[in-house]
Amino acid sequence: MDSYGGAVHPTPPFNAPAARRLREALGMAPGHVAYGLAAQYGLRIPAETVVAWERGLATPGERELTALAGVLWCAPGELLAAAATLREHRMSRELSVDDLARQLGMTGASYLRMEETGRWKGNERQSTALCRALGLSPAQFLTATGRDEELAELLTSAVTTRWQAYVRPVAKIVPLDRGQIQDVLEQLHADYQALMVSTLSWSSTGQERSATTGDAGRAFLARVVDQFWRTAGV
Question: What pTM did the predictor assign?
């Protein structure tokens, strides 16, 4: 259990059907699970609560999740839906705050502040170490560190203006080789400009500006980000 106090953490994305499936595969009843939680981990959890977890009516906290995984002979990650935040990825890897912070070369308190705020402030070396420790793809890293929107804005500017000016800003937030980022931005820019010419939408009517506002703008940003990852091959 982590040794830091402070903000109350949101509950992890608990996979209720998986919990029931794993229990039944072991031939256990909810009462057996409740007994195991008490005997092995000192948690007084009634069988009714175990049933509520499995029905999605309640969610176990971090300590309860770890204990439940132990009773069900599985990894905590098997009881989680797809992880999205840094905390969820850390929990799925069964790492404590201190363990992960040590691998990143920072204090536990410094890492925990970033995990709680969802804003990653580590340098490029620490970002690479984070991806390695948590098994994150570059796309997962951006989502977990709250930088999806920032990347979308940078990419939009890169494809609609001078892409060369955005190699460095993108490299600061995306854990990819700078040369690869340069190649991807150049390709995206060329593809976008060719599309604008072929559809004759790059005109003086202001349509090029309206394409990045409102619902159409959000859809455009999503397409640019998706194409970035596809072109990068990750």
Answer: 0.59
